[in-house]
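Hi Y.,

Following your request, here is the sequence exactly as I used it, all 232 residues.
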Amino acid sequence: MAVNKWVKYLLFIFNLLFWISGCIILAVFIYLKVNKDGNQITNESIPGIDLMIAIGVIVMILGFLGCCGAIRENRCMLLLFFISLLIIFILLLAAGILGAVGEDKVKDWMKERLEKLKPLSGQPENVRNDLEKLQRELKCCGLVNGPSDWNAVPDSCRCNATETDCVPGSIHNTPCVTKLVELMEKNMEIVLGIAFAVAILLIFGMAFAMILYCQIGRKEGATTGTGTTTNA
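Below is the corresponding structure, written out as tokens. Let me know if you'd prefer a different format.
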């Protein structure tokens, strides 16, 4: 029995798309990491970017593995590819459920991490500079409690002349943790969108890989059976 060429090339195209999705994940999260400008405050409060970069690399490797398995009709590579996709799908599903159920816990965890940076005036100069830069960008003041987190409120907490919704010279009352939560939620929308697209690709990939795996097995069985009959 011959291997269905449509399945073979569909699996190859899928793995090409899978590899491209890995490149996109890698590019997006490298951009998010670089876009934070190495700010220690955001490094503390918005974790997981390094993990997603690692996932992007893994997805690229698996896409390459699947392409080779499909073109070479290698059952071992296809089985390894199927098992890897299944593990990633389960982990992705578990992460999505935990993220949806534990959103409030993540916010509380973020506040606890930022709380450790108080008192702000006692932090090293590089940390204070990062926070002041963050305050200017996000238009906030302090970390958890607002301006009261500072012994002496810095100029970065004050509204500037370009802000239309704030009187120049007055102080922003919104603590930076509120703005960081909004930033995290915005990033989470990107993450969930990518995760949903990858999950769909995983389902199709597992189906095509198993179909091709079974077809190659039947082909090899038929070839072995024919060889045995001829020898007899």
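The mean pLDDT is 75.

Thanks again,
Q.
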